[in-house]
Write a structure and sequence with these properties.
Layout: H1 2-5, H2 20-53, H3 65-74
Helix pairs in contact: 2-3
């Protein structure tokens, strides 16, 4: 992405070097995008294990497990 498009806009050769803050933020964003699908699978597994152990009352009891897992796993 960056090294493909930015050379068209760079005015000096030093502009081609990726600055440290840009690298950190882009790298963190890419890590999040790569790991979010795996973490959601872990969340579904946890939710299903809890549902199986609470099979008698799971569908009738108000639970915040699903929204809490989404918040924890996606909001990390």
């Amino acid at each position: 992405g960056y090294h493909t498009i930015y050379p068209f806009f760079a005015t000096t050769k030093c502009d081609l070097i990726l600055s440290n803050p840009v690298f950190k933020w882009v790298h963190i964003g890419h890590l999040f995008l790569m790991t979010a699908p795996m973490m959601l699978g872990v969340g579904f597994t946890i939710e299903r294990v809890v549902a199986i152990t609470m099979a008698q009352s799971y569908e009738h009891v108000r639970t915040f497990l699903g929204p809490m897992l989404v918040f924890v796993l996606v909001g990390k």
